[in-house]
Each structure stands twice: as structure tokens, then as C-alpha cells.
Design goal:
- The chain is mainly α.
- The protein has a domain of 141 residues.
- 87% of the residues lie in helices and 0% in strands.
- It is built from 11 helices and no strands.
- Helix 2 packs across helix 3, helix 3 runs antiparallel to helix 4 and helix 7 packs antiparallel against helix 11.
- The radius of gyration is 26 Å and the shape is globular.
- It is a multi-pass membrane protein.
Length: 342
Amino acid sequence: MSISLGTLFKAALVVLGIWFLFLVKEVLAILFLAIIIASALAPLGEFFDRFYLPRAVSVLGVYLVLIGVVVGVFYLIIPPLINDLKELALVVPEYYETVSKQIFKTTRGISPDYAKSAQEFLINFGDKIKGFTAGIFGAVSGIFGGVVAFGAILVISFYLAIQKKGVEEFLRLVTPEVNEEYVLNLWRRVEKKLSKWLQGQLLLAFVVGILVFIGLSFIGVPYALLLGFIAAIFEILPIAGPVLSAVVGVSVAILVSPVLALFTVLFYIILQQVENHVLVPILMKRATGLNPVVVIVALLVGAKLGGVLGMLISVPITTIAGELLEDFAKQKSAHKKSGERA
């Protein structure tokens, strides 16, 4: 069976297309995020249209207010946060040295094999701690390394938002006419579901972060601001996020005293109950349709493939894929029913 030259040419084009998309994946991620932000700001632009304000002016005003809020929050939080990170990076290895010396003393009366295993574990663990604390500064610098990408996202989303139905017009431009209506309908559904999920998730993260900061400050855990920030960030990870933030908080508390660690454990248990039975029902009741396990897997895959940008676009892409699969299932069911009638 011979393969025609035209088939080989098409296959080569597909391979080149995939390779090109892989090369520009960061650019595509930036464009995708810009579309999401523009669609989120579109309702505000439509609201100000009622007052006969030029759309560019109203959208620019919204951007300036949002940027002002973000800059203000960062100005208040980032300096003490960086100080906490630096102090923690210096203190943790010292605590490790103290604890390991105490454990080495207690292992003198234990079986040599067990003592040797314990010592090897502590040495390896210490190396990991030192590597982790050294990597803290790299993580902080990585945040500022994304400033260019952040600026590009803002500029692109602004130009999309100042146009009436800018995102839809962009989708019309890049979509074949035969699929145009379906793509627009799909985007409207995805946009609605994403906005509900994102609003609920951001509110939940903010409230949990504030509660962790207040609670840990009250019981005397050091670096409460940093731990509150970590709790807010981890909150984006359903189920596992609160557990991970609790582990970090208890680990810091135990460096001070076992009693403080016990109080910290009790605090996180109470917080988890409040979150599950009060905060989640109130803040997330409208954010339906996104399975927590699917969100976790999407975030992990996104982080593996594209780092921070990959994580940011993983949930929107998963939502689109979910809607496509749902449409496919409905279409398949409809064909099956029509076949049975025939």
C-alpha cells in the first residue's frame, strides 16, 4: 500500500505545526490568560457603557483601580514577607543542627544499625532543608522574573477588553465559519463556569489566609504573615492544599516548642471544620461543575508542563475539555437514539 506525496506533505505540516506550537507555548499561555482576563472585565465595560463613557476610558479606569489595589497590597505585604523568608531560611538550618545533635546523643544507647540509619536520615534531611532554604531566594526572584509576561498579559487583555465583545470577535477571526457559532457558544459556557469557580476560589483563599494569619499570631506562632500567605496560595489546590499548609504551619511551630505545635494542630483542625462547614458552602455554592480531583490533576499537569503559567491555564483548558466531552457525549447519545428510532 503506497502513501501519496500529498499525504506525506500533510503529515509533515501537522508535525511542524505541533512543533511550532510547542516552541511558542509560553506565548500561547499568555494569550490564553489575556483572553480570560478580558472576558472577566467585559461585564464591567458593558456596565459603564450605560453611562455613555468611552469604553477605552472605562476599561482603563478599571485596570488602574485593580493595579492600584494589587500594588498597594504588595507594598504592604511583600517587604515583611521577604523578611520572614530570609529569617526562616537562616533559622531552619540552625534548628536542624540543634535537633540533630540532641538525637545523636540519644542514639548512643540504641542498636548501632538503628543509630546509623537515623543519622543517615538526618544528614540527608539536613541537605534537603539547606537546599530548600537556599531555593527560597530563587523562588522570590522567579516571581519578579514573570513581570514581563504579566505586562504582556495586561496589554493584550486591555486591547481585547476595550472592544465590544472583543474576545468573541477574536474567536470569530481565528475560527472557521462553519464552526463559528459552536465555538462562541462553547466559550460562553466555559466563561460562565470559570468565572463562578474563580470568584469563589479567590474569596475562599483570601478569607483562609486572613484567618491563618490572625489565628497563628494569636497563639504566638512566628512568621504568621508568611504562613497566612502560604495558606492562601495552597487553597487553590482542593483537598490537599489545606493539609499542606497545615504541615508547614505545624513544622514552623514545632521549631519553637512541642506545646505550641500541639496548639497549632488544634487550630488547623478547627479551621478545617470552619472551612468545610461554613466557608465552602457560603463562598463556593455557585462554583459548581468543577470536580476537585480533576482540578488537582489539572494543576499538577500544568505545573509539570508549563510551570506557573501552566498552572494558571490548566483549569480553563480542563474546563473547555470537559465541555467538549460533554457535548460529544450528548451528540453520541442523540445519534444512538435516532438510530434506535430508525
